[in-house]
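Quick sanity check, Phospholipid/cholesterol/gamma-HCH transport system ATP-binding protein:
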Amino acid sequence: MAADNDPIIKVRGLKNAFGEQVVHDNLDLDVRRGEILGVVGGSGTGKSVLLRSIIGLQPPVAGEVEVFGEPTLDREETETVDIRKRWGVLFQGGALFSTLTVSENVQVPLREFYKDLDPVLMAEIAAYKVVMTGLPAEAGPKYPAELSGGMKKRAGLARALALDPELLFLDEPTAGLDPIGAAAFDELTRSLQRTMGLTVFLITHDLDTLYAICDRVAVLADKRVIAVGTIPELLALDHPWIQEYFNGPRGRAATASIERQERSSAEMVR
Ligand SMILES: Nc1ncnc2c1ncn2[C@@H]1O[C@H](COP(=O)(O)OP(=O)(O)OP(=O)(O)O)[C@@H](O)[C@H]1O
């Protein structure tokens, strides 16, 4: 039985390789219950592969992964059903089924895990999730091709939330959104995390997202997680990639923008 302060995700000694190409080597990571953990790293450092390994879609060459205190690797699909029900995933780009409506997409996990659920109830749950992610109720019968990029992300999020998960995986949720749409999506993630008590594993390149909603950030480089901490903790480290990333022009712009927002909300409360 897992204790409350045990990590919700525990990765130890993970190694992933594709032929000669080693993507991860001896990677360790803990994700704490209730946090939003941002996962950053240069392109191709293996952020998505790490996500796929944790959820069992990418069998690693070596290492151990535990989610909710239970091992997820080398197990039959039937043995991990009770674990998989407890997480939701928003894949890069939304990964909606193009031949299904938004409502039908949201019902996919319900059909997978609760085959005998009354179809009327499934449709009601889907309608509720659609509205919960800020989409209009009329989006339910639409097909993905009829939605904007931002709406597709929200529909993907509605599907990820279909089973009221405890743990949410988001792979670059704000990629391709304009800054206002991205900020709105961040706000939605934060508010859902608070109201549903979610833990969030969030892969992003978006510095604004990191500053705005992440409790801690894990940095992937040199085939492993080289550091995990709050942004001020990371900034105190001497690693060239971390310094370049957070202290480069875009990092400084994101810091300045957060400081401006904090000043203006402080002025509003006065
Ligand atoms: N199924 C696969 N077969 C072969 N190589 C793969 C496969 N999946 C990923 N890779 C390789 O593993 C490396 C890491 O890929 P991954 O998609 O995890 O990177 P990432 O950090 O998420 O990148 P980005 O930020 O660009 O999305 C890349 O070099 C990629 O080409």
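Posting the structure with no commentary besides this: Strands lie at 9-18, 21-31, 36-41, 62-67, 70-71, 87-90, 167-171, 199-203, 216-221, 224-229.
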